[in-house]
Amino acid sequence: MDRVKASTLTGAEIVVRCLQAEGVEYVFGYPGGAVLFIYDELFKQDKVKHVLVRHEQGAAHAADGYSRASHKIGVCLVTSGPGVTNAVTGIATAYMDSIPMVIISGQVPTHAIGLDAFQEVDAVGVTRPCVKHNFLVKNVADLASTIKKAFHIAATGRPGPVLVDIPKDVTTHSCEFQYPESVAMRSYNPVRKGHAGQIKKAMQLLLEAQRPMVYTGGGVVLSNAAPQLRELVKLLGFPCTNTLMGLGAYPATDKQFLGMPGMHGTFEANMSMQHCDVLLAIGARFDDRVIGNPAHFAQNPRKIIHIDIDPSSISKRVKVDVPIVGNIADVLDDLLKLLRDAKPQDIGQWWKQIDEWRAKDCLRYDRNSKIIKPQFVLEKLYEVTQGEAFVTSDVGQHQMWAAQFYKFDQPRRWINSGGLGTMGFGLPAAMGVQLANPGSTVACVTGESSIQMCLQELSTCKQYRLPIKIINLNNKYMGMVRQWQQFFHGNRYSESYMDALPDFVKLAEGYGHSGMLIDKPADVEPALREAFARKSELVFLDFITDQKENVYPMIPGGKGITEMILYEDL
Amino acid sequence: MTRHIISVLVENEAGALSRIAGLFSARGYNIESLTVAPTEDASMSRMTVVTSGSEDVVEQITKQLNKLIEVVKVVDLSEAEHIERELMLIKVRAGQKEREDMKRMADIFRGRIIDVSDNTYTIELTGDGRKLDAFIQALDPGSIMETVRTGTSGIGRGNRVLRV
After folding, report:
1. Interface predicted TM-score of the whole assembly (ipTM), two decimals
2. A132 at the B interface (CB within 8 A)?
3. Using an 8 Å Cβ cutoff, are A314 and A286 in contact?
4. How far is CA A497 from CA A402, A471, A549, in A?
5. pLDDT at A569
6. What is the mean pLDDT of residues B70-74?
7. Contact at 8 Å (CB) between A532 and A388?
8. Of B53, B67, B68, B59, nearest in space to A316 by CA
9. Along chain A (570 residues), what's the average pLDDT of each consecutive run of 10 residues?
10. In chain A, positions 161-190, which contact chain B (CB-CB < 8 Å)?
11. Which of B20, B67, B73 to mutate against chain A (most A CBs within 10 Å)?
């Protein structure tokens, strides 16, 4: 009889019981010395399933992808020292895109902290700038309440990753266990409802608008407010754009959708952002990749309404006229109540102007090419998957083409690293997405450079039978780097050529998957059809694409939102 | 660029100070001085940060501080009437020749001599930062052996109170 009371548990048992109480389905992780007791407890139960990645960066990205595609909290578990430092890129990725995650990291025993012990790193210090919050738990009695707080903080307000660092001895100490039912923190009480007076002001501005524009970002997706956004945009008859993080919040196939704004946004979206008289910004943050140079953006007078859960996002880069702090779904509910019987202005003239901009057909590319155009692959991917796939991406040209050419009609289908721009995100994120949506079609759009950054996860995909389809747009260059070098560095392609590439087909086969090499435009669609028909297999499709293709439109760094380089200019 | 005195109530937890200092360095905000100590409620510390920046930057500073999970309350004291004080301990040469002058100078600035040795005085002086600067200016630089200043603490005037 080791235990005095049935409810007295060790720290390791408490960790696992907390995860169970939170309804955690999957933990993405990698064992090591400091977390051995926690792994031992995971072994003894089967409620919480563990997914063994091949590198801790993959664990963080997979938990992140899982969260993005499911609106649940992603959880990962890593050991001390290199375990947690390897996860940092993934944590920072989630932080920049406000993804709710809980990261549990092992730490050296409390008596060894600060003595440069084996595999010791100050995890709380290392992760501080890239987490919403973090904790070091030095006393087992604080463990359950800290984990409860971590889940609460991660998911509420503006979401984000929270790290809980647990020294090894704390996992062996015992205390009475009771999982708290609720959390009360005097220093953390995020608002939900928006200010009624401000919402009324917003309504008046919207109804007076002659040239309105709705600009929405990742916040609408995170707040699950896509239905409200659709109703609002339909009710008002206004044009709408979704940022890279917000794609799918408004259906891309609807005619009121103008495409994505920003550095590689559509001509019509960027022109409308600049020339509108009332801009309704929802869960978006006017970042440099969206509005370009803020001084240029401010040249055209317009009234700006900004709805966001995070007050620090408001008037950060652009001064706004009507700030509304609150949970987007709640604020839009209130705004809709006021708007249902109201009558907006006739904006026929504005739509005429927008249609002229649209007629530029800014995403045009050479359809008669004998070499595979990457845009063509994405158009075919959209057709073959009937627009229903979950699409993850890495970072670079392929990411922009996927955002431009795959028309997302649903939120949480487009999974990419928008803020941090993390190459290597796509494949591990796809694992999380597939686990969150078993039976659904998941495609990872990547490039020959990005895919090599977390390539080892092909092994994880095999172990858990994840039938992801990898769409590798292989132009043998870090394409976006090459594009900038072509435009701004006198065609000096410094270190952007990917020499000595592996044979991706053999590589995929080496991991127990199948691969296809596609080098002719005519083979693109048949290959995609064949690959997606293999429902239970991971297929690596290596598309040999045009090395010289560029992403258009493009706003050069530091330029204004309307100062776009277009395909037709060249 | 104007000077602002920001008072922050934070949970008295390990790491809260580094979180706040880290925020200032990560976002490139200025810190002129930062003081921190527990309040009458031991679960909370009060921090006074003196910073400078444009109105936009100071607005961001207060918003970013509020966003930190452990921060309970933030007030920009310089938005209204307030009092600020700083404490300085200064060790000066005070041999037979200088002793009288040094004592007089301390009296003029309402300083107190709190330690005496054969050839030194240690003077305690409180006031706003400008007064402490003025005292240093008034001394012969060669007579100053060591100075230590606490940085500014501030409080609102009258009924203006910062508490939970």
Report:
1. 0.93
2. yes
3. no
4. 22, 20, 14
5. 76
6. 97
7. no
8. B59
9. 64 98 98 98 98 98 98 97 98 98 98 97 98 98 98 98 98 96 94 96 97 98 98 97 98 98 97 98 96 95 98 94 98 96 94 97 95 98 98 98 98 98 98 98 98 98 98 97 96 95 98 98 98 97 97 95 88
10. 185-188
11. B67
B83: helix, strand or coil: strand
For residue A71, which of A281, A180, A225, A179 has the smallest C-alpha distance?
Answer: A225
What's the CA gap between B1 and A552, in Å, rounded? Answer: 40
Decide: helix, strand or coil at residue A259.
coil
| CA atoms within a 13 Å half-sphere pointing along the CA-CB vector of A529 | 6
Q: Min CA distance, A326 vs chain B (Å)?
A: 14
What pLDDT is attached to residue B82? 96
Q: Which residues are registered as beta bridge partners of B49?
A: B6, B34
For residue A276, the SS3 value is: coil
Distance CA(B48)–CA(B37), nearest Å, equals: 9
Which among B11, B26, B63 has CB closest to A312? B63
Burial environment of residue B108 by CB neighbours within 10 A (0 to 12, 13 to 18, 19 or more): exposed
CA distance A40 to A36: 6
* Radius of gyration of chain A, Cα coordinates, nearest whole angstrom: 24
* Three-class HEC string of A154-165: HHCCCCCEEEEE
State the Cα–Cα distance between residues B16 and A135, nearest whole angstrom.
Answer: 11
From the list A280, A474, A489, A507, the residue with the least C-alpha distance to A377 is A474
The residue whose two tokens read 């952002």 is A273
Q: Report the Cα–Cα distance between both ends of chain A, in Å, rounded.
A: 80
R_g (Cα) of chain B, nearest Å: 19
| Tokens (6 digits) for A466 | 């994840």
Residue B91 phi, psi dihedral angles, 5° rounding: -105, 125
- Between CA A37 and CA A514 the distance in angstroms is 38
d(CA A190, CA A183): 13
DSSP string, A8-53: EEEHHHHHHHHHHHTT--EEEE---GGGHHHHHHHHT-SSSEEEE-
Rounded to whole angstroms, the Cα distance separating B16 from A50 reads 33
CB contact under 8 A, A187 and B70: yes
Beta-sheet strands, E only, within A313-388: 322-325
Alpha carbon separation from A420 to A63, A391, A424 (Å, rounded): 16, 18, 12
Cα A404 from Cα A425, distance rounded (Å): 19
Joined together, the tokens standing for residue B121 give 């005085």
How high is the pLDDT of residue A3? Answer: 42
Spatial contact of A278 and A303, defined as CB atoms under 8 Å apart = yes
Q: How far is A424 from chain B (nearest CA, A)?
A: 25
For residues B162 and B164, give the distance between their C-alpha atoms in angstroms, rounded to a whole number. Answer: 7
Closest CA to A364 of A570, A545, A55: A570
Cβ A187–B22 below 8 Å, yes or no? no
| Nearest partner of B161 among B59, B87, B80, B70, judged by Cα | B80
B98's enclosing H/E stretch is: none
* Residues of A involved in catalysis: 56, 118-119, 168, 480
Q: What DSSP element (H or E) covers A541?
A: strand A539-544
Q: Give the DSSP letter string of A344-357.
A: PPP-HHHHHHHHHH
CA distances from A520 to A514, A523, B141 (A): 19, 5, 81
The DSSP-derived string for A85-126 is: HHHHHHHHHHHHTT--EEEEEEE--GGGTTTT-TT---HHHH
Q: Which residues fall within 8 angstroms of residue A35, CB to CB, at 6 or more apart?
A: A29, A77, A78, A79, A80, A83, A104, A105, A106, A166, A168, A171
Give this prediction's pTM: 0.96
